[in-house]
Design a protein that fits this description.
binds coproporphyrinogen III; globular; two-stranded antiparallel ribbon; single chain; alpha/beta; TIM Barrel
Length: 344
């Protein structure tokens, strides 16, 4: 640590920063013309993730343009299955694909070599910390075991993660084995990102919302709690944000059971409930990304409601999920100005 004042780190320590610091999930992405240009020149999406020059460039693009309070490492949650030799490819217009894994495939998974395969990501993190402004928080990330497993089992994205839910009922032992392997690898990966210079890390459990009560406990809470335990054993000071999208009422105990410093909230979380969650610690969120597409009064009203209800406690202003390619870059500027202007 350099001792620099980084607002998001302050919030993660439980402090209220006014106006709240702001970054957006997927802030480096297709809504930005400069991203589309670098992406086109990179060739494949994985080449973009594994070429530090390019990954640094696209991470910095939204920082240069808007001065967000955090930069998030440019990579993807699916580099873990890629490092596990699942033949991951990103097909233009079709989303990510990989070889679907079965019980025998799970028995054959090996964690050796995974961190070495991801060495270019750590190089990107090191360079980013050197190139970013002192005051900008650098976030590392990975997917939560459940969300990564949904892609590994189906072999692609699905609207309801039915293949993974079904697999878990049919083959509970193999499924638990997959989750614990992913938890261990992902924890080591986040430790490596922290050692390379990430100030904090976020664990994305984007598909937590499809799990029943018991399954949420077994597949969303337990593996993330295990990850955080492994990380904290090695790096007691690690700052961790856990984002379990669609977790609803389960969020009440999620922070305490996982040990996360902050919890991410999607836009379906009622602000009255968010206020309760904030009494236990920092929250991040939760503007509907569609408001950034729509702009105008819908954007302003959405921002104002969040600031009004959550602005007097530890808050990292963010969207409730990733910004979409249709978002208007001017609306993003308006968002930041409104968040920063409101309580100044
Ligand atoms: O937030 C950032 O700016 C950092 C980069 C980042 C990406 N993916 C880049 C990306 C992060 C944090 C992610 C996380 C991610 N990836 C998640 C969790 C968060 C979420 O949005 O739910 C998930 C589920 C994935 C898996 C993934 N990667 C999908 C389903 C897709 C295809 C859908 C899509 O949006 O195109 C990707 C590809 C991807 N990852 C893109 C980007 C910028 C677009 C690909 C391209 O540019 O061609």
């Amino acid at each position: 640590m350099t001792g620099a004042y980084r607002k998001i780190v302050e919030v993660l320590e439980g402090k209220t920063v006014s106006p709240p610091p702001v970054w957006l999930m997927r802030q480096a992405g297709r809504y930005l013309p400069e991203y589309r240009e670098t992406r086109a020149a990179a060739g494949s999406f994985l080449d973009l993730c594994y070429t530090p020059d390019l990954a640094v460039e696209v991470t910095l693009q939204p920082i240069r343009r808007y001065g967000f309070d955090a930069a998030i490492l440019f990579s993807d949650i699916l580099v873990i299955p890629d490092a596990l030799h699942r033949n991951v490819r990103f097909v233009q217009g079709e989303g990510p694909q990989m070889d679907p894994i079965d019980v025998a495939g799970i028995q054959g998974l090996k964690s050796e070599g995974v961190i070495a395969h991801l060495a270019p990501v750590m190089e990107t993190v090191r360079r980013l910390r050197r190139e970013l402004p002192e005051e900008t928080t650098l976030l590392g990330f990975c997917g939560a075991p459940w969300t990564v497993a949904t892609y590994m089992i189906a072999g692609h994205g699905t609207p309801d993660q039915a293949p993974a839910r079904l697999f878990a009922y049919r083959h509970p032992e193999a499924f638990e084995k997959l989750l614990s392997l992913l938890a261990e690898i992902s924890a080591e990966y986040l430790v490596a990102q922290i050692d390379a210079g990430a100030d904090a890390v976020q664990i994305f459990d984007s598909w937590a919302g499809v799990l029943g009560e018991k399954e949420f406990e077994a597949y969303a809470v337990k593996p993330v709690a295990r990850m955080i335990e492994i990380i904290r054993r090695q790096r007691p000071q690690a700052k961790i944000i856990a984002f379990a999208k669609g977790a609803g009422l389960n969020l009440k105990s999620y922070r305490q059971k996982t040990g996360a410093d902050a919890i991410g909230l999607d836009w379906s979380v009622p602000l009255s409930f968010a206020v309760e969650l904030q009494k236990d610690g920092p929250v991040q969120g939760n503007l509907d990304p569609m408001r950034v597409v729509a702009g105008g009064k819908s954007l302003e009203d959405g921002i104002d409601a969040i600031l009004d209800k959550l602005g007097n406690g530890p808050l990292i202003f963010n969207l409730g999920h990733g910004i979409t390619p249709e978002a208007n870059p001017d609306h993003v500027r308006q968002l930041i100005e409104r968040v920063r202007g409101a309580n100044a």
